C-alpha cells in the first residue's frame, strides 16, 4: 500500500512539474548573460552579456572559441544570418555591428534611427534584417545593408520574429498586443490576449505555430494560417518570461524566466515536459540547438549552460 502511494506521488510530480533536465555543459565567464543564439547548423553558440561583451563557443567540443571586443558600446541584441557567416549585433547607441563568423572580424557598421537597439533578426530567406528600437522597426536589405522600410510604431516594440516564409514580421512590446506586420505593405493585424508587456516571441520553423510570453510569466501558443489565429495560454514562470524558442520540428517550446528556471513544453497540449534547474539568477535567454537534442540558456548568474533535451 505504501509502495503504491509513493509511486502515485512520483507520477503526480512528473505530471505536474515535468522531468528534471540534465546539464551537459556549463560556461562560466563571470558576466551576466542576457541572450544566446545558435548558427543554423548548430556549430557555433553566441552569447552576449549585460556589460555588452560577446562570446563564441563550440557546443560540440564544449569549448570557447573567442571573446569579442565590443569597444565602447554595449551589445543589446544578436542574430546569425541564414548560413551563419555573419553575426549582427545591436548596440545601446543605436548602432548595428556586423561580424564575420567564426573569426569575429568587423565587416560593417551602420547607425539606425534610435539611441538603443532592442532586437535584431535576420529573415529566414537571408534578404532582410529587422531592427527594433524605441521609435519602431526598421527593415534593412542585406544585399547592401541599406534601410528599405520604417514600420509604424505601436507601443515600444522590443521583441520580433519572422514567419518562416519571410513575408511577415511578428512584433510585441509595451502595448500588450502582438502585431502581425506584412512585408508587402498591407495593413497590420493586432492580436490581443496578453495583460502585461510582451517580452518574448518565436515562430516554429514549419510555420504552423508561434508563441509569445509576457511579464506576468504567461505564454500563449498561437496557430498560424488561420484568418483569426487562436491561442492557448498557460502560466509558465513566476516573475516573467524573458525568452522562448521552438525545437526544429515544432513539437517542443523552451522558455526562460525570472524564476531562474528553464522549462520545455509540449506545443500541442501545453503540458510541461522538463524543468532545468541550475541557474542561480534570472534566465534571460534560451535557444534550441537546430539538432533538437540540446538547448542553451543565458543567465544573470554569469553562466551559459547547455542542457540535454529528452
Can you walk through the features of this model?
With 310 residues, this protein is mostly beta strands. It has one domain: YVTN repeat-like/Quinoprotein amine dehydrogenase (Methylamine Dehydrogenase, Chain H, 7 Propeller), CATH 2.130.10. 5% of the residues lie in helices and 53% in strands. The chain is built from one helix and 29 strands. The chain has a five-stranded mixed sheet with strand order 1-26-25-24-23, covered by helices on one side. A hairpin with a 5-residue loop joins strand 15 and strand 16. The longest helix is centred in the N-terminal third of the chain and has 16 residues. The chain is globular, with a radius of gyration of 19 Å. The N terminus is likely disordered.
Give the SSE layout.
Elements: H1 2-17, E1 19-20, E2 22-28, E3 33-38, E4 45-49, E5 54-58, E6 63-68, E7 75-80, E8 86-91, E9 95-100, E10 105-111, E11 117-122, E12 128-133, E13 136-141, E14 146-151, E15 157-162, E16 168-173, E17 178-182, E18 189-191, E19 198-203, E20 209-214, E21 218-223, E22 231-235, E23 241-246, E24 252-257, E25 261-266, E26 272-277, E27 283-288, E28 294-299, E29 303-308
Parallel strand pairs: 1-26
Antiparallel strand pairs: 2-29, 3-4, 4-5, 5-6, 7-8, 8-9, 9-10, 11-12, 12-13, 13-14, 15-16, 16-17, 17-18, 19-20, 20-21, 21-22, 23-24, 24-25, 25-26, 27-28, 28-29
Keywords:
1 helix, Methylamine Dehydrogenase, Chain H, 310 residues, globular, 29 strands, mainly beta
Amino acid at each position: 500500500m505504501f509502495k503504491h502511494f509513493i509511486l502515485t506521488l512520483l507520477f503526480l510530480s512528473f505530471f505536474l512539474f515535468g522531468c528534471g533536465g540534465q546539464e551537459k555543459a556549463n560556461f562560466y565567464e563571470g558576466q551576466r548573460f542576457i541572450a544566446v543564439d545558435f548558427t543554423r547548423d548548430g556549430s557555433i553558440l553566441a552569447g552576449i552579456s549585460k556589460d555588452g561583451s560577446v562570446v563564441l563557443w563550440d557546443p560540440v567540443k564544449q569549448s570557447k572559441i573567442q571573446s569579442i571586443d565590443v569597444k565602447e558600446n554595449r551589445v543589446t541584441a544578436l542574430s546569425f544570418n541564414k548560413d551563419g557567416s555573419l553575426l549582427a549585433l545591436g548596440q545601446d547607441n543605436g548602432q548595428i555591428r556586423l561580424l564575420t563568423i567564426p573569426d569575429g572580424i568587423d565587416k560593417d557598421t551602420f547607425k539606425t534611427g534610435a539611441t538603443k537597439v532592442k532586437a535584431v533578426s535576420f529573415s529566414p530567406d537571408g534578404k532582410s534584417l529587422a531592427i527594433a528600437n524605441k521609435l519602431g522597426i526598421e527593415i534593412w536589405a542585406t544585399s547592401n545593408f541599406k534601410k528599405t522600410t520604417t514600420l509604424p510604431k505601436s507601443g515600444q516594440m522590443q521583441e520580433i520574429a519572422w514567419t518562416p516564409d519571410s513575408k511577415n514580421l511578428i512584433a510585441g512590446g509595451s502595448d500588450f498586443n502582438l502585431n502581425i506586420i506584412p512585408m508587402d505593405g498591407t495593413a497590420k493585424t493586432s492580436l490581443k490576449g496578453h495583460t502585461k508587456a510582451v517580452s518574448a516571441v518565436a515562430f516554429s520553423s514549419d510555420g504552423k505555430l508561434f508563441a509569445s510570453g509576457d511579464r506576468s510569466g504567461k505564454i500563449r501558443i498561437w496557430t498560424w494560417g488561420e484568418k483569426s489565429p487562436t491561442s492557448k495560454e498557460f502560466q509558465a514562470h513566476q516573475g516573467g518570461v524573458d525568452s522562448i524558442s521552438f525545437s526544429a520540428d515544432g513539437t517542443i517550446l523552451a522558455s526562460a524566466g525570472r524564476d531562474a528556471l528553464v522549462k520545455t513544453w509540449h506545443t500541442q497540449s501545453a503540458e510541461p515536459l522538463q524543468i532545468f534547474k541550475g541557474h542561480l539568477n534570472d534566465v534571460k535567454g534560451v535557444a534550441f540547438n537546430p539538432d533538437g537534442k540540446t538547448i542553451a540558456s543565458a543567465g544573470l548568474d554569469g553562466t551559459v549552460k547547455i542542457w540535454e533535451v529528452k
